[in-house]
UniProtKB/TrEMBL annotation, chain A:
It comes from Streptomyces cinnamoneus (Streptoverticillium cinnamoneum). This is Succinate dehydrogenase. It comes from the Bacteria. The lineage of its organism: Bacteria, Bacillati, Actinomycetota, Actinomycetes, Kitasatosporales. GO terms for biological process: aerobic respiration; respiratory electron transport chain. Gene3D superfamilies: 3.10.20.30, Alpha-helical ferredoxin. The keyword Cell cycle does not apply. The keyword Metal-binding applies. GO terms for molecular function: 2 iron, 2 sulfur cluster binding; electron transfer activity; metal ion binding. Residues 149-179 form the 4Fe-4S ferredoxin-type domain. Its cofactor is [2Fe-2S] cluster; [3Fe-4S] cluster. Belongs to the succinate dehydrogenase/fumarate reductase iron-sulfur protein family. Pfam families: Fer2_3 (PF13085), Fer4_7 (PF12838). Keywords: Iron, Iron-sulfur, Metal-binding.
TrEMBL record, chain B:
Gene3D superfamilies: Fumarate reductase/succinate dehydrogenase, transmembrane subunit. It comes from the Bacteria. GO terms for cellular component: membrane. The keyword Nucleus does not apply. Keywords: Membrane, Transmembrane, Transmembrane helix. This is Succinate dehydrogenase. SUPFAM superfamilies: Fumarate reductase respiratory complex transmembrane subunits (SSF81343). It comes from Streptomyces cinnamoneus. The chain crosses the membrane at residues 26-45, 75-98, 119-140, 167-188, 208-233. InterPro entries: Cytochrome_b-558, SQR/QFR_C/D. The keyword Protein biosynthesis does not apply.
Length: 250, 234
């Protein structure tokens, strides 16, 4: 396959960036999107140019490190992570636009790399359960109904890649935050901090400069892990419940 | 040793709700639902225009006497007007503040453009502005009668017919009602999500209800200028 790539190049966080055109040849349809970029970077290095910077780690679709907006869609045309997107989903001769996640809370570091530490601070504000340390508790000490365990696991699948924020026209982190809140709030282990968790995480999310939710549904469409849009309704329910209960604790 | 816990007094509830994006959306949802409930009642009452001047004017008179003798004349009417005014203002202010925030949260646009979200969703902001301007004109025309060509106090039927007899007024009204339908189509479902009523099981029912309400309100309200222009109401 021969492709025309238009990639966002930006040397530093302060420097103005621009879409830059590259021609790549000899791309196999079995390559992942990242391998295709590796191929481009090898050619750029050989010709003495600066390679395109992008985040990646496991390349198995489970770490959440990679992510770029491909032809206007977070992680590209398929419901998967960029590392698991294969070139067979493109056609020979295609022009592909590659851009970084765009959000005020995710400043561009270089090229396609953005700073997602805002997510870490949201997690730090409530994405945990407080348990006494020591030996591991007996597994059957706290029974969890199957339906609840499934619901928690569905939300625990969030890998924090930021595709929801990138896809949202408001740069909102509601789907990410709701995945974390619902994951812990439905479990008995998360119950003691049920109210403070949702209030603190929503406050942290707002403080980071993410936008609000207008229920466009773009986030859930982009999510490579299939976190459902209804998670946001679930978090709103938890938020209002915590407000009615006076703000703190259960 | 006791664990350190937060003992500081939490900030005031109303203040923290209003400052949070989730809380502010909840305010928008509640005020939107208040206005929606009013619109359903408003439309049903207004359709009495098809039963003639006597019945419609009697209905207009009755609104002023609701609750008597417990309430004084027009107290119910003014209470409703106050609740609606507060709702419109809170809804608008919250929408403005959230929109400012949303636009600031996405300062750089994507070079690869594609339409995001449905038409009804994308037109919520400007559709809301149009509806706000429509309300101003609508009150000046048929409540205060400031710009009404007939302007007879206590004769709402004659005032309505005189206003809608001008085709451009009817056209503006119909356009505003189409905007209302789009606004309700996304707004009702969105309000249900915001208030936490959405769930995978209820999603289809909520969308059906949103579309049903939007179609009902739009068709019901549009029937009135159409009735006047076709001479069914005269």
């Amino acid at each position: 396959m021969n492709l025309t790539l238009r990639i966002w190049r930006q040397r530093t966080p302060e420097a103005p960036g621009a879409m830059t055109t590259y021609e790549v040849t000899g791309i196999s349809e079995d390559m992942s999107f990242l391998e295709m970029l590796d191929h481009l970077n090898e050619e750029l290095i050989l010709s003495g140019d600066e390679p395109v910077a992008f985040d990646h780690d496991c390349r198995e679709g489970i770490c959440g490190a990679c992510g770029m907006v491909i032809n206007g869609r977070a992680h590209g045309p398929e419901r998967t992570t960029t590392c698991q997107l294969h070139m067979r989903h493109f056609r020979d001769g295609d022009t592909i636009d590659v851009e970084p996640w765009r959000a005020a809370a995710f400043p561009v570091v270089k090229d396609l790399v953005v700073d997602r530490s805002a997510f870490d601070r949201v997690i730090g504000s409530g994405g945990y359960v407080s348990v006494p340390t020591g030996s591991a508790p007996e597994a059957h000490a706290t029974p969890v109904p199957k339906a609840v365990a499934d619901l928690a696991f569905e939300h625990a699948e969030c890998i924090g890649c930021g595709a929801c924020v990138a896809a949202c026209p408001n740069g909102s982190a509601m789907l990410f935050t709701s995945a974390k809140v619902v994951h812990l709030n439905v479990l008995p282990q998360g119950a003691p901090e049920r109210g403070s968790r949702v209030l603190d995480m929503v406050a942290a999310m707002d403080d980071e400069g993410f936008g609000g939710c207008t229920n466009t549904g773009e986030c859930a469409t982009a999510c490579p892990k299939g976190i459902p849009l209804q998670s946001i309704a679930h978090m709103n329910r938890e938020y209002l419940r915590a407000v009615v209960k006076g703000g703190r604790g259960r | 040793m006791a664990l350190a816990t937060r003992t500081a007094r939490p900030p005031s509830l109303i203040g923290s709700v209003w400052r949070s994006t989730v809380g502010k959306k909840a305010v928008m949802a509640v005020t939107g639902l208040i206005m929606l409930a009013y619109l359903v009642a408003h439309m049903m009452g207004n359709l009495k225009v098809f039963f003639g001047a006597g019945e419609f004017n009697h209905y207009g008179h009755w609104i002023r006497t609701v609750g008597e003798p417990f309430l004084h004349r027009e107290w119910f009417l003014w209470a409703a007007r106050a609740a609606l005014s507060v709702s419109v203002v809170l809804h608008g202010v919250a929408a403005y503040q959230l929109s400012r925030r949303d636009l600031a949260a996405r300062p750089a646009k994507y070079a690869h453009k594609r339409p995001r979200a449905s038409y009804a969703t994308r037109t919520m902001r400007w559709g809301g502005v149009i509806l706000g301007l429509f309300i101003v004109w609508h009150v000046l025309d048929l409540t205060t009668l400031t710009v009404n060509p007939n302007a007879q106090e206590g004769r709402p039927y004659e005032n309505l017919v005189a206003s809608f007899d001008r085709w451009y007024v009817s056209a503006f009204y119909i356009a505003a009602m189409l905007a209302l339908g789009l606004h309700v189509r996304h707004g009702f479902w969105s309000a249900a999500q915001t208030l936490g009523a959405g769930s995978p099981r209820r999603d289809r029912a909520l969308k059906f209800l949103a579309n049903g309400l939007a179609a009902l309100l739009t068709c019901g309200f549009i029937a009135i200028p159409v009735g006047v222009l076709t001479g069914v109401v005269s």
